[in-house]
Write a structure and sequence with these properties.
Radius of gyration: 20 Å
Strand content: under 5%
Oligomer: single chain
Length: 296
């Protein structure tokens, strides 16, 4: 922080409230849905992406307001703006609500349905997933709708129909992807969740059982990706082969979860981190292939 000028230091906590890595991911999948429906990049897309980005940032900031007490108990999150005292809880709440309002208004200028879907994603995140994760370790299951809704927002904003099975398959893929994404985080942040007093899968299962469950969900994500080309969504066969080959690689590499020594914590955590990066890279690859195939 000493190397930053005063203005940058003042802005930094407000940017940290936005969880930009997560909100950018929502914006990318919204882009995927829009391009798939429209088949091109055009001017309304700017408003759609800006709107979903603002909505996602508002939901992320509101989540930190809701989780401030729990965040203060966990080493991983104790340095966040609210528990560290750099931003007051009230100021963060006002900030979050303004972002949510701005994002909704911007999306509404393009499509009222898209705006309502975007708000639905925020309701799932802040109204269902966030309070539910303090009650049950299975909150990731309903919480996974958070990942499924942004591509649908892009799809309907571009004029696509909600009843179209094309988007159902894509949304299903992103829904499934969220689950191993969440559980792999749990596996290498096990101590943080325990320190925060959060319900955890470790309350119900041992580490080896959680690893097996996570692998099954990881494999399910790859199978869901295969359903997309099998449903003839692609105009170009090579696109389907790319996804099939990448999915096979992810599953084969994911089997290392079943072989790794769960008692050697350093090796185990490293394995989980690598699988976490791979499943996220796979989701990004699927997104890129869907966009390229729609534009070519």
């Amino acid at each position: 922080n000493r190397t930053l000028d005063p203005e940058s230091r003042a802005m930094k906590p407000w940017l940290e409230l936005l969880k930009l890595r997560i909100t950018v991911a929502s914006t990318v999948t919204t882009f995927v849905g829009y391009v798939m429906a429209r088949g091109r990049v055009d001017r309304p897309l700017v408003s759609v992406l800006a709107g979903i980005m603002l909505l996602a940032c508002g939901a992320a900031a509101l989540n930190q307001v809701q989780d401030a007490v729990v965040d203060a108990k966990m080493p991983r999150t104790a340095g966040r703006p609210i528990p560290s005292g750099r931003v007051s809880r009230l100021a963060a709440l006002v900030y979050a609500l303004l972002l949510l309002a701005a994002g909704s208004a911007l999306l509404w200028t393009v499509s009222s349905t898209a705006a309502l879907m975007g708000l639905a994603a925020a309701v799932v995140y802040n109204g269902i997933y966030t309070p539910l994760k303090r009650v049950t370790p299975f909150a990731a299951l309903p919480g996974s709708f958070i990942g499924a809704l942004p591509p649908v927002v892009g799809w309907v904003a571009a004029g696509g129909y909600l009843s179209d099975p094309t988007m159902h398959l894509v949304a299903f893929f992103f829904f499934l992807w969220q689950i191993p994404h969440f559980w792999l985080l749990l596996l290498f942040y096990e101590k943080d969740y325990a320190d925060g007093g959060m319900p955890s899968m470790f309350d119900r299962f041992d580490r080896r059982q959680i690893v097996r469950l996570t692998f099954l969900w990881l494999a399910a994500v790859c199978v869901a990706a295969l359903m997309i080309p099998l449903a003839a969504l692609f105009d170009h066969t090579p696109a389907a082969w790319v996804i099939a080959a990448a999915g096979l690689v992810v599953v084969m590499r994911g089997t290392s979860l079943l072989r790794v020594d769960a008692d050697d914590l350093a090796v185990f955590v490293r394995c989980c981190r690598i699988r976490f990066m791979e499943i996220n890279t796979f989701a990004l690859l699927v997104s890129v292939v869907l966009v390229v195939d729609s534009l070519v």
